[in-house]
Amino acid sequence: MTDTRFEHEPSFVDFILSPQAIRERAASLYKKAQEGSTHFAIHEDKLDEVANYVKDVTLENYPELDIPFHSRWGHFQAGGRDRLSVLDASLDGLDAEERAKAKLDLVIVSVLLDAGAGPDWAYTDGQLKIGRSEGLAVASFNMFFQGAFSSDPSQPLRVDAVGLMGLSKQALETGFQVTSDNPLVGVEGRVDLLQSLARTMFMRGDMFGQSLPRPGNLYSFLAEQAADGKVQAANILDAVLRGLGPIWPGRIELGGTNLGDVWQHRLLGPLDSVDSFMPFHKLSQWMTYSMVEPIEAAGLQVEGAGELTGLAEYRNGGLLLDLGFLALRDPMWASKAHAPDEELIIEWRALTVHALGLIGQRVCELLDKEPEQFPLARVLEGGTWRAGRKIAAELRSDGTPPLKIKSDATVF
Question: What CA–CA distance (Å, rounded) separates 288 from 375?
C-alpha cells in the first residue's frame, strides 16, 4: 500500500514503530473485546489459572529461575547438543566486535527464517529429528556453518548481501531437507525475504556497511549510538524496524517507511485513517531480544528491555484460547483458515499482547519477583511460549494452534 491513502503527522511514523503504540492500541482492542465488540470473549477469571500454568511450566524448565531472555539462542541447543560451544570455538580467533557481528549475522537470518514450519516438517541432525522452531533454528545454524549465506568460501561464518542474493529456492530446500514427504510451509516466502534483505542492505549502507553489507554490521551502527557503553533496547528495535523494514512484502508505507507488521482494524478508526493501524512488530521484537546477548558479550550494556512488549504469535495466543482466557464468540470461526490481515487474527494478536502484560505481572507475584528482576522477556521464555506449546500438544495430537492460520512465512 502507498502512503497517499493516509494523512499523518511526520511524528506518527516514530509513534507507530514504538512499543508504546503496540501497548496503547492493543489495550484499545482489549477494551472493545470487554465491551463485546470483537470476535472474542474475555474470561478474566481464568487469569490465575493461566498464570499458575505458566509458573509451573517455568519451574519445570528453569527450577533455579536462571532464565535468559526469550530469544533464538536457546533453540540452537535443541536435542541437548551444545552447538553454541562449537560456534564460539570457531569464532575464537576474532576480536569481540567481529564475534558479535558474526553472531548477529547468524541470529538475524535465523529469526527471519523462523516463521511457522507447519506440522509435517522436521529436520534431521545426526540421530536427532527436530521439528518446528527448534528444527528451523538448527537448519539455519548448519547452513550458516556451511557458508550458505556468505559470498566468500574462505569466510563461511558470515552473512552478506551478495551471498543472500545468490541464495536459491533449491538451496534453501536442500538446506532445510524439504521433500514431498517433508514439506515446509512458505519456502518461497522465506527465500524472497532473504533476497529482499540483501537488496535492503545495499540501500542502507549507513547501517549495514558500504562495501559488502552484512546484517551483523548493525553492531557498529548501534555502538555509535551508545552513551557510556549503554544502548537502549528500544533503539535496537528502532534500528531493526527502520533498517529491515523494506523487506516486508505488501505492507503499509508512510513517508517512504515500510511499517512492517502493522495492520488495520475498523474498531480502532476509519480504514482510510492512520487511527485504524494496529502494530505488532512480532518478528522484529523477537529479533531484538535475540540480539541482546551478542551485543552485551561484545561489551555494550543493553538497558530498557522491559519497554518491549509480549510477542503476538500463535503459541502465546494459543495458550489463551486453550486455557479459556479467550473464547471465540462463534466456535465455527475455528474451522476455517484465517489470513494475517483478517480482523479476527488482528484481534487475537492484540488481545494476546495485552494479556501477556497481565500474565507477566501475575507470574512475577507468584514467583515473588519484582518486574525489574523478572522482565516480560524472561516470562516469555520461561514461560508463556513453552506453556502454549505444551497445552497445544496435550489438546491436539499434532500440536497445532487452536486457530488455523494462512502463513506466508513473514508473520507467524
Answer: 15
Question: Is the N-terminal amide bond of 383 cis, ω within 30° of 0?
Answer: yes
- In single-letter form, the type of residue at position 376 comes to L
**Per-residue pLDDT, 298:** 96
For the chain, which ranges sit under pLDDT 50? Answer: 1-3
The pLDDT value recorded for residue 398 is 87
pLDDT for 410 equals: 66
Q: How far apart are CA 406 and CA 412, in angstroms?
A: 9
| CA 225 – CA 300 distance, rounded (Å) | 11
CB 58, CB 363: distance < 8 Å: yes
Q: For 399, phi and psi rounded to 5 degrees?
A: 70, 15
Written as one string, the DSSP assignment of 88-111 is HHHTTTS-HHHHHHHHHHHHHHHH
Q: What is the pLDDT of residues 74-93, one digit of tens each?
A: 999 999 999 999 999 999 99
The pLDDT value given to residue 168: 95
Residues above pLDDT 70, as percent of the chain: 98
Strand-pairing partners, residue 230, are 227, 301
Q: Using CA atoms, how far apart are residues 81 and 244, in angstroms rounded to an integer?
A: 31
Closest CA to 340 of 237, 240, 265, 254: 265
C-alpha cell at 391: 497445552
Q: pLDDT at position 409, please?
A: 61
Look-up of cell digits 531493526: 240
Residue 154's CB is within 10 A of a number of other CB atoms, namely 7
317 neighbors 352 (Cβ within 8 angstroms): yes
Strand 122-125, strand 128-131: pairing: antiparallel
Q: Output phi, psi for 277, to 5 deg.
A: -75, 135
* Nearest of 229, 228, 227, 254 to residue 241 by alpha carbon: 254
Q: Position of cell 481464568?
A: 46
